[in-house]
Each structure stands twice: as structure tokens, then as C-alpha cells.
Design a protein that fits this description.
The chain is an alpha+beta fold. It contains four helices and six strands, in the order ααβββαβββα. Strands 3-2-1-6-5-4 form a six-stranded antiparallel sheet, with helices on both faces. The protein starts with 11 loop residues before the first helix and ends with a helix. The structure holds methionine sulfoxide. Methionine sulfoxide binds next to α3 and β6.
């Protein structure tokens, strides 16, 4: 079986729609959360232009712990409230940051990262973790990207 999920969409909305349906197809019949996070990070990393890190931090007893990802090795544990991921976990609000260097407490794992979007993963009121996507481009993520990533997080929250 081959997985050829190359997505070549003409516009951002179409790209996120294709990405969401590819993600759904990839995770829908698998119950193992590690396998689903691993494939999801690979699919998103392959599909989104101008990203250098895509992955997960899991909520393990009130601390964010690194999960499956694509990109350079990253910091392993992040307290709630610290940096962009920790803020997303604590507030349960999407963090879309145009310039991570201006974000208080930002944790620089890869010095190439300049902008970032972090989406909390919530199921039935429980914070499972966060999806973190980094870009070397400043202000890479638009409101349209944010909406697309929220859709991806909804799909993922059901299978993690
Ligand atoms: N920049 C993040 C840390 C995680 S890495 O980017 C992979 C933050 O401040 O939350």
C-alpha cells in the first residue's frame, strides 16, 4: 500500500480542504495515538509551504511533553504558561504569532523559526495536547491558516 498524499491546490482554502480530507483518511481507522500523531505531522509538514517544524506536545499530568514531529530536535518538556505552546495549553486558545522573538518567554528550539501557530487539542473538555507549526518566514500564518489548522485539530482530537 502506498500513501501518495501530494496536495497541489490552487488556493489556500482548497489546500486546507484537501489536507483535512487526506488527514481524515489517514487517521480514521487507526486508534493508536502515536501512529496518528506521527502520520499527521508528516502529512502536514509535506503539505504546508514554508514550514520548518510540525509536531505535537502532549499533556502529561499538566506538563507539555514532546510527541511525534517533523523537523529539528526540539525541547522535550514545556510547563503550562511558558512560551507559545505553554500559553496555548494554559489558555486553551489558538496562538498565532507573527514574530516569535517578540513573544514573551518564547522557547527557541530552532533558530530558523520566526512565526508559529499553536492549536490546542481538546476532547470532551480535556486538553490532550497541542499541535505546533513553525515557519522560518515572519507572519507566515494568516487567519485562513488558523481556520485550516483548527479544522485539522478537530479531526485529530477525535483520534488521539
Ligand atoms: N517555540 C515553541 C517551542 C516549541 S518549538 O518551536 C518546537 C514555544 O515557544 O512554545
Amino acid at each position: 500500500m502506498t500513501y501518495d498524499f501530494r496536495i497541489e491546490a490552487v488556493d489556500t482554502a482548497t489546500m486546507y480542504r484537501d489536507l483535512a480530507s487526506a488527514l481524515e483518511g489517514l487517521v480514521v481507522s487507526e486508534t493508536d495515538p502515536i501512529a496518528n500523531m506521527a502520520n499527521a505531522s508528516a502529512l502536514i509538514f509535506e503539505t504546508l509551504p514554508d514550514v520548518n517544524w510540525v509536531g505535537f506536545y502532549r499533556n502529561i499530568d499538566g506538563e507539555l511533553v514532546l510527541g511525534p514531529f517533523q523537523g529539528r530536535p526540539a525541547c522535550i518538556r514545556i510547563p503550562f504558561g511558558t512560551g507559545v505552546c505553554g500559553t496555548a495549553a494554559e489558555t486553551r486558545q489558538v496562538q498565532r504569532v507573527e514574530d516569535v522573538h517578540a513573544f514573551p518567554g518564547h522557547i527557541a528550539c530552532d533558530s530558523a523559526s520566526n512565526s508559529e501557530v499553536v492549536v490546542p487539542l481538546i476532547r470532551e473538555g480535556e486538553l490532550l495536547g497541542v499541535l505546533d507549526i513553525d515557519s522560518p518566514k515572519k507572519a507566515r500564518f494568516t487567519a485562513e491558516d488558523e481556520a485550516g489548522c483548527i479544522r485539522l485539530a478537530e479531526i485529530l482530537s477525535r483520534v488521539l
